[in-house]
Amino acid sequence: MSGLDDKFMRRALALAEATGQLGNVPVGAVIVRDGEVLGEGANLRHTLQDPTAHAEILAIREAAMRSGAWRLTDATLFVTLEPCAMCSGAILEARFARVVFGAFDVDTDHAHGRALLDAAPRVDVRGGVLQEDCRDALQRFFSALRMVDP
What we know:
With 150 residues, this protein is of the alpha/beta class. The chain is built from six helices and five strands; from the N terminus they run αββααβαβαβα.
């Protein structure tokens, strides 16, 4: 799985980098079933002024529409940052088989999200895929923000 995990995480990372250029926190998500991309999303919270416009939520919406079903069983969600509690709830509702994320987040909200996923025995969770690349994208974004608004 590692080769495919890296491939799809790189695709999520490209989405993250692109949305970061728009002023959004650089988080990207890709949903894959049987090697086919069902949905993609990037954090557009700032652009849309929508607190629910997280990468995972937007990717889930697209995947459900494309597949014609809200149940995304046998699908894998790749996301560059550990899911928050809201996104973890949506992941569980969509019934994902697997979640792969890049950077770990020590933010309390994300810790609660991870606890939700860890408590779900049917969801296989793998963290730390391309962790340094995902973390670097976030650090570059926040460093640039601090330089503009010290």
